[in-house]
Amino acid sequence: MADKLTAVKGMNDILPPDSARWEWLEDKVRTLMARSAYRMIRTPIVEPTALFVRGTGETTDIVEKEMYSFEDRLNGEQLTLRPENTPGVVRAAIQHNLTYDGGKRLYYMGPMFRHERPQRGRYRQFYQLGVEALGFSGPEVDAEIMLLASELFANLGLRNVRVELNSLGVPAERQAHRAALIAYFEQHRDLLDTDAQRRLLTNPLRILDTKNPAMQAMVQDAPQLLSYLGEASLKHLDTVQTLLTGCGVQWTVNPRLVRGLDYYSHTVFEFITDELGAQGTLCGGGRYDGLFELLGGKPTPAVGWGMGIERVLELIKEQGAELPALVADAYAVVPDAAALPVAMQTLQTLRRAGVQVQMHAGAGEGMGSMKSQLKKADGSGARFALIFGADELAQNLVTVKSLRDGSGVQTTQSLADVATWAPTLQSNA
Question: Which end of the chain has fewer CB atoms within 10 angstroms, the N or the C?
């Protein structure tokens, strides 16, 4: 007997009924994005490794530790399973000259891959929803995409999600702050852990994001980037804050919020919950005006965010937010195989009319007894059973039995006029 094969650790199967919850969330996303004129973009799962080394940042944890990279056996090209999607979207925009006629509002949903220790809401293959607004420099678009995230959380029925934001300014301001940070951390080198010492001269801003408890007090007293921002950067941040407040979104400034990627500038933000333990960031993003040039394109302003779908679904479950009934409207009971042609034609008509209907399928040679089929109909959660019995079919009728209101009421409906009574089976009828 062959050894049983299982999925790779941290890469999970999504099975019914959980998969239906994913579809429900995805439908909410598509509706919201369409209302704000954001359009779907789909990019390859595999990209050149250089895209992430240059775009995500050579000294980030993602590039240094977490990427699934390999050599193409046909041509020796270095390839990587995408650990995030912003560089891929920008690569596509440059390659296809996407912003030649003005800015583009885009969104995506799909799998990402990071080689890290699997934990609650964080997996090696995880699914990310993201938006990218390309070609817009104004702070109003920073606020717009944050409002999209806030509205999505509201539409999903989630509570107690707070917004933290900061500004990373422009390159010259970050350089001045970087020099001050290095000088400060040099004075406290004895308190730096191995990771911080390695980053001291390559990416000192990332030290501010440390989770090491022994470094927290020292990091709290480090120079703040906000102190190095010029008038234009401060005005950009102030406008974002004013617009969010005007739209009813509460926020706080976190001067230590730096995000984990090298391409950010100006606004950075996170949507955070305290109900998922250490993995509390549901959505994070910001402005990345320099990424197009970094990847070989023309200077193009851009802003976006990414959201972990698993974490959002986990929070929905944690908070007990209401989910739709994941069941069919009706279950077709077919006591005799001779009734199958009529039953299947009827079900096709019902489905075209928008009714969700499941047909009983036989086991072995028989269809199963009427009693066993009605038991399955009840167990399916459907609101009605449609009974295609011989007596009914002889009169060109079908029996409709109520399964959920406790009445067990049965009526008969004409098979010659299915479209007329089909709406009465739907859950919103």
Answer: N
SS3 146: helix
- Cα distance between residue 45 and residue 292, in whole Å: 20
Instruction: Sketch out the chain's domains with CATH numbers.
Output: 18-169+229-319 (3.30.930.10), 330-425 (3.40.50.800)
Full strand arrangement of the beta sheet holding 68-71: 46-48, 78-81, 68-71
User: Are the CB atoms for 181 and 269 separated by under 8 Å?
Assistant: no
d(CA 303, CA 348): 46
Could you give the CA distance from residue 134 to residue 102 in angstroms, rounded to a whole number? Answer: 9
Residue 126, number of CB atoms within 10 A of its CB: 21
Q: Which residues of 358-376 are buried (b: 16+ CB within 10 A; e: fewer)?
A: bbbeeeeeebbeeeebbeb
Per-residue pLDDT of the chain (429 residues; tens, 9 = 90+): 788 999 999 999 999 888 888 999 999 999 999 999 999 999 999 999 999 999 887 767 788 889 999 999 999 999 999 999 999 999 999 999 999 999 999 999 999 999 987 776 678 999 999 999 999 999 999 999 999 999 999 999 999 999 999 999 998 998 899 899 899 999 999 889 988 888 888 888 888 878 888 899 898 999 999 999 999 999 999 999 999 999 999 999 998 888 756 678 899 999 999 888 767 899 999 999 989 999 999 999 999 999 999 999 999 988 887 776 678 899 999 988 889 999 999 999 999 999 999 998 874 456 778 888 999 999 888 999 999 999 999 999 999 999 987 777 899 999 999 999 999 998 765
Which pTM value belongs to this model? Answer: 0.87
